[in-house]
UniProtKB/TrEMBL annotation:
Subcellular location: Membrane
Statement: the UniProt record of this protein carries the keyword Transmembrane: yes
Protein name: Glycosyltransferase 2-like domain-containing protein
Keywords assigned: Glycosyltransferase, Membrane, Transferase, Transmembrane, Transmembrane helix
Every Glycosyltransferase 2-like domain range: 10-176
Originating organism: Eubacterium plexicaudatum ASF492
Short name of any one Pfam family annotated for the protein: Glycos_transf_2
Amino acid sequence: MQVEKAILYIIIPCYNEEAVLPITSKMFLKKLQFLIRTGQVKEESRILFVDDGSKDHTWDIIYELAKENKYYIGIAQSRNRGHQNAVLAGLMEAKDFCDITISIDCDGQDDLNAMDAMLEEYYHGYDIVYGVRAERKTDTFFKRFTAEFFYRLLNKMGAEVIYNHADYRLVSSKVLQNFSDFKEVNLFLRGMFPLVGFRSTCVFYERQERIAGDSHYTISKMLTLAFDGITSLSVKPVHIITEMGIFLAIMSFCIVIWSIVQYVMGETVAGWTSMTSVICFIGGIQLICLGVLGEYIGKIYLEVKARPRYIISNRTYEAERLNIEENKEQ
């Protein structure tokens, strides 16, 4: 049975990428044209850049690329909202105009040839294809150790994530239509897509060094992403706090019994050091528990406000987009 070829949108989030974008944009175009020429995707396929409120000339570069070649299109967020929101903006923008999307970072580290394998799996009936790093040879020991710890911790905490998968993935428009029903403001896409369901599989690839420019993922951003992933997808930390509270309550009760017995036997001795240690320990545990609970309450506060997750201020293809929407309505 002949499978109808799909319209592909390659979603590329960009933040202050003026150093690398002129280089990688040519790589993305070459890859898309190859996929079109070999009949793997349709001519209507596009490369969609998402400018995440860059402070350099990233949007100017995207705008010029769109003027030079029809395969380039772009949208710009009104301000910087973070990588996850930028990816989401691109996916939601593309879902009504394509059959499949492939999200990939702008830095050129992810292997573009993995797209061929992703498309092959899609045509075999898979709606989500995760790009998974086979190894972490290019990472420092610290980054490799923390990344592996991060994925293991997420799974231990009850969040369903694919080990060594970031945001390089193929997603069908059918999945995206259902994914649009997920309204939470606190985003952790690599943990949310498994929640949607549908048939999924993995494609393994090697990740290379960044082609140009500097990485925008600082240690603080990675830690924030990790904490967001845990608190957005799991309530297990709250369960741990409850279990810890029960354990400390039992311990405290035992200490009270022991103190009464010691008093009755007349063996009480003033113990400033031990008392101070116990007070400091319990006080520290309480502060940690209050901090975790505060994070959850803060997230509830943001969700209740229901503010938009992204605002698109500019498009390189506004007229074309309006024509497509009008044709769909007719």
